[in-house]
Design a protein that fits this description.
about 190 residues; eight-stranded mixed beta sheet; about 30% strand; globular; binds coenzyme A; GNAT_dom; Acyl_CoA_acyltransferase
């Protein structure tokens, strides 16, 4: 049987347009927009230590987004050009065609459907262009908004990895959700 050529992750699209959003690389020009939510303890709670200064945000942009931009996007509102969050693929495992999904949205822009719009756009690229097979995400048990987003994105709850990560000083359980390519095809039908 002929071996099918796998697409390389370096070919992941850099810009993705949706109705209201442009997903595009994060740059240092986004520092103010990112600092706005990264410096808010409530907003940063589940994802990273609260940023104490704009310099810290710039350093994070440099280390996380500029050094390894593959699969990482700023979520820009097309109507204003403001960056209202990020969405990205982590732990991209090309041989096994799976990756982890992560995201954060500025609180002021929650509950308007922007996150699900970004998730669906990324799923489309992931399954249809990259031809990857499994997209997973995990949340701490109390993070209901994130769990709801995973479910709305068609992810199925798989189970709990006990005491998997250190979170704010203690070892906590993580709940896994995933969508596989056949689920995605079913969703489209
Ligand atoms: C997780 C997170 C991105 C979810 O954001 P969100 O605002 O709940 O998700 P969406 O942008 O998809 O908005 C969905 C809500 O908008 C409503 N909505 C309004 N207009 C809508 C539209 N046009 N389309 C879809 N939904 C719409 C939905 O009804 C839903 O409301 P509900 O929460 O009352 O059910 C956000 O809470 C966040 O950034 N949290 C902190 C970071 C974090 O926890 N990251 C994950 C770590 S595991």
């Amino acid at each position: 049987m002929q071996k099918r050529e796998l697409p390389s992750v370096v070919k992941i699209r850099k810009r993705i347009k949706t109705n209201r959003l442009l997903l595009r690389p994060v740059t240092l020009e986004d520092a103010m927009d990112m600092y706005e939510y990264a410096s808010d303890p409530q907003n940063a709670y589940y994802v990273f230590p609260t940023n104490k200064s704009i310099e810290e945000t710039r350093e994070n942009i440099n280390n996380i987004f500029l050094k390894n931009p593959i699969g990482k996007y700023g979520i820009e509102l097309k109507s204003t050009g403001k960056m209202i969050g990020t969405i990205y693929l982590l732990n991209i495992d090309e041989p096994n065609r799976n990756a982890e999904l992560s995201y954060v949205l500025n609180h002021n822009f929650e509950e308007q459907g922007y996150a699900i719009e970004a998730v669906r756009a990324l799923e489309n690229i992931f399954f249809r262009e990259m031809n990857f097979v499994r997209l997973y995400a995990r949340h701490t048990l109390d993070n209901r908004r994130s769990e709801s987003l995973m479910e709305r994105g068609g992810m199925v709850r798989e189970g709990i990895a006990r005491q998997e990560v250190e979170f704010r000083g203690e070892m906590v359980d993580m709940c896994y959700h995933a969508i596989v390519q056949s689920d995605y095809r079913d969703l489209l039908m």
